[in-house]
Amino acid sequence: MPSETATSIAGTLHDWFADAARPLPWRAADVSPWAVLVSEFMLQQTQVARVLPRWEAWITRWPTPARLAAEPPSEAVRAWDRLGYPRRALWLHRAAAEIVERHGGEVPHDLEALLALQGVGPYTARAVAAFAFGLRHPVVDTNTRRVIARAVAGQAEAAPPSVARDLAAMGAMLPADAGEARVFNAATMELGATVCTARTPRCDECPISSQCAWRAAGYPAYTGARKAVQARFEGSDRQVRGLVMRELRAAHRPVSRAELERTWPDTAQLDRAIAGLLADGLAVSDGDDAFGLPQS
DNA sequence: AAACCGTGGGT
DNA sequence: TACCCAAGGTT
């Protein structure tokens, strides 16, 4: 049972969302659950602007899980292009196969079944259940966590993530009606993404500024635990993996280790990257010192 | 459970 | 310019 404060915030956000929501294509009424699932995979740690063109191309080419599962994983990895974290492309391909095998080609509604799909975790499972099927589940992403931290807890930043705590916090605020709950989930994320942003929040444009505990407290600085800082990307193994994957995507034939050395001369680091990609199934050896994308 | 996993937008 | 950080998931 949501508190009066939560009910009040939900009502305000509902009205705000009605005209402030960006017209994102995966929010259209006629998109399939599969198209929603694809969008959620792509949006993991990746901004909307970068996802839009890849999503359009993907669902045009593969409008159903079966159509994707019928092609080799290499095609999924190529279509993923430079979205980043290419394991997601592999996982989405695998999830499509699982949907065909276990669910007759239809994206399952059930939370447990969704969570069992490769690459689907607590966020993605609830996002699909809520946004594609209208089921009443709390959906918590990084935006939601920041909005709750500020508006409800009065803190500048969210504490390090805790699935159980974060879901409980959002669950306690969730409207009882499933339709209202879906809007509340989406509106809270939207507010965090466009107004209550991490770096420079636009509090003067915020629809719930009068109800915001952080604002009421005078915008105190964050004093809690900080999340770990991301390692430097330049010169990292991640960068090398990315460069190797770019070569493998572009070459529609095996690429020799000698060729890869031209993109990254540090052979120890290159070998580490290749070994990692082989272990992840993003690359396969041709048995003769050359590498390609997985064909099956 | 802390660390790892890409790429680029925003400031 | 550098640096932060982004609709997370897996091991």
Can you walk through the features of this model?
InterPro entries: DNA_glycosylase (IPR011257), Endonuclease3_FeS-loop_motif (IPR003651), HhH-GPD_domain (IPR003265), HhH_base_excis_C (IPR023170), HhH_motif (IPR000445), MIG/MutY (IPR044298). The structure is a single chain. By secondary structure, the protein is mostly helical. The protein has a domain at 237-292. The chain contains 15 helices and three strands. A three-stranded antiparallel beta sheet has the order 1-3-2. A hairpin with a 4-residue loop joins β2 (284-285) and β3. The protein starts with a helix and ends with a strand. It binds a DNA duplex (11 and 11 nucleotides) through residues 39-40, 42-51, 82-88, 91, 119-124, 127, 139, 141-144, 161, 189, 192-193, 197-200, 228-231, 233, 236-239, 241-242, 245, 276, 280.
Strand order of the largest sheet: 1-3-2
Structural class: mainly alpha
> How many helices does DSSP assign?
15
**Order of helices and strands, N to C?**
HHHHHHHHHHHHHEHHEE
Strand content: under 5%
Shape: globular
Rounded to an integer, what's the Rg over CA atoms?
21 Å
Average pLDDT: 96
Largest sheet: 3 strands, antiparallel
Q: What helical percentage do the residues reach?
A: 55-70%
Poorly predicted runs of 5 or more residues: none
How far is the N terminus from the C terminus?
A: 49 Å
Count the E strands: 3
Pfam family, one: EndIII_4Fe-2S
Catalytic activity: Hydrolyzes free adenine bases from 7,8-dihydro-8-oxoguanine:adenine mismatched double-stranded DNA, leaving an apurinic site
Keywords: 4Fe-4S, DNA damage, DNA repair, Glycosidase, Hydrolase, Iron, Iron-sulfur, Metal-binding
Enzyme class: hydrolase
